[in-house]
């Protein structure tokens, strides 16, 4: 089976550092190159650019939408449908979508981000999922290490790196290690 890797990040990217969108695109490419399927929140910004990168590598992209239908996804939420092979319309708004996104993947990668990204991160952290954080992209991604340290809940299963290729490779090794441990 292929790895399912969710990319979480800012839909509105004003908080992101210059170059963050291109780095998100590289993350999407690397997920596919290294044998994965990309899962996104079917939204704009960082997840959208990750989807573009994944499709440039002829990969599979699955979106988890907050909307109940394609019509609501496009008209009410004003979210894109391109660069995705499949979009699952949850009808659970953003909080419910975030839960499903984090739980539908083997691991999650945080790139830049705002409050929703932090929510997806904390769900993955509480679920003890492998997490990759692309540092140097701004927003939530650059605050996570400090938040984790000050939260006094342990280090979690988190890989921090500024290089998309290295981050994805290390994250896949962590997924394999976790699967091996869980199968014993």
Summarize, please.
By secondary structure, the protein is an alpha/beta fold. It has a single domain (3-182), classed as Rossmann fold (3-Layer(aba) Sandwich).
Commentary on this structure:
The protein is α/β, with parallel strands linked by helices and 184 residues long. The protein has one domain (3-182): Rossmann fold, CATH 3.40.50.450. The protein is 45% helix and 18% strand. Helix 1 (20-33) links the parallel strand 1 and strand 2. The longest helix is centred in the C-terminal third of the chain and has 19 residues, at 164-182. It is globular.
How many E strands? 7
Looking at the structure, what is the overall shape? Answer: globular
CATH class category:
Alpha Beta
Q: Helix/strand-derived class?
A: alpha/beta
CATH architecture: 3-Layer(aba) Sandwich
Which runs of at least 5 residues are low in confidence (pLDDT < 50)?
A: none
What name does the CATH topology carry? Rossmann fold
Using brief descriptors, characterize the structure shown.
184 residues, Rossmann fold, 7 strands, globular
Topology of helices and strands:
Elements: E1 3-9, H1 20-33, E2 36-40, H2 46-56, E3 61-65, H3 70-76, E4 86-89, H4 93-103, E5 107-111, H5 115-126, E6 131-134, H6 144-151, E7 158-161, H7 164-182
Parallel strand pairs: 1-2, 1-5, 2-3, 3-4, 5-6, 6-7
């Amino acid at each position: 089976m292929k790895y399912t890797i969710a990319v979480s990040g800012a839909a509105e990217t004003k908080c992101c550092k210059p170059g963050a969108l291109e780095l998100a695109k590289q993350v999407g490419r690397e997920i596919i190159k290294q044998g994965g399927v990309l899962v996104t929140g079917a939204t704009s910004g960082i997840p959208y650019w990750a989807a573009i990168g994944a499709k440039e590598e002829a990969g599979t992209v699955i979106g988890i939408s907050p909307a109940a239908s394609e019509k609501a996804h496009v008209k009410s939420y004003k979210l894109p449908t391109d660069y995705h092979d499949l979009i699952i319309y949850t009808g659970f708004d953003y909080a419910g979508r975030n839960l499903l996104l984090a739980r539908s993947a083997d691991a999650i990668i945080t790139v830049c981000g705002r409050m929703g990204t932090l929510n997806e991160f904390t769900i993955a952290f509480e679920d003890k999922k492998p997490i990759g954080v692309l540092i140097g992209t701004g927003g939530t991604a650059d605050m996570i290490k400090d938040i984790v340290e000050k939260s006094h809940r342990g280090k979690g299963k988190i890989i921090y790196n500024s290089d998309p290729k290295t981050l994805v490779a290390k994250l896949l090794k962590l997924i394999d290690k976790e699967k091996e441990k869980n199968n014993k």
